[in-house]
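sorry for the late reply, my laptop died twice this morning and i had to redo everyting from scratch. anyway the thing you sent over, i finally got around to it. pasting the sequence first so we're on the same page, its 251 residues, then the predicted structure underneath. double check i copied it right bc i was rushing
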Amino acid sequence: MHIVNTITNSLEWRGTAFAKYESEHLTLLIKGKMESWIAFGRGPLFRLSFGLMLLGLARIIFLAAMRQNGAASPQGLWSGRDRWMASLKNPFTAVILLIFHVSLILVPLFLPAHVIQWKQNVGFAWLPISQRLSDMLTIALIATAIALLAIRVGRIIVGQLRPSKGLIWPIFLIIPFISGFICVNLDVTPNVYYGSLLIHVYSGNLVMLALPFTRMAACILEPLAVATVALSPVPALRRWFLKTGLAAEDI
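ok and here's the structure:
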């Protein structure tokens, strides 16, 4: 009986050890594949996405500058000023829009880990903001994006906005921020970490690729136009934005 128990315990131990080995081997295999995909997304795919984004944004500005009539379209970029000015009548919406756009621009450019990526991929970088401020801006963007979604749902309910136009882009933009926040701030398992990082890298690249070819371009160009007209010390630059605008067909 003692021998049988010994053999049984030995088999159970070996079975447990083998299962643990298989689990660890599978984890290492998944980790290795994820690291390869992440390295590709951070390197060649990032450079491709960034280059296409710059070309696409340049295309939009070029088409605006080359428009024959030279008059701002009622649906152009400068009409973004009218939407922004209208939003100022509602302080709540104005604050939400301001926080959302500031966070949307600052976090991708000045997050410490992102600054390293810029340096590695484009050969130059700039001073980063603190990690704490980056976390605060990320949380602010997520919160304001949810608030914008709630506002847009309300507008859809009353028939002021089409569902496809009102909901897709805020959800699309928020994915890289949520996944990045999980990677940096939450204590998760390695599989969850690498999965979140993979989503973060590829969703960020997808945003860059889609940005100049969708209405998401307005998230960057409208604040740029409004800030340029309001703050630029160069009168010719202010007049160019006022005169040219960006037509809906340019985006």
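Residues 7-15, 17-22, 68-80, 246-251 have pLDDT under 50 and may be disordered.
thats about all i looked at so far, will dig more tmrw
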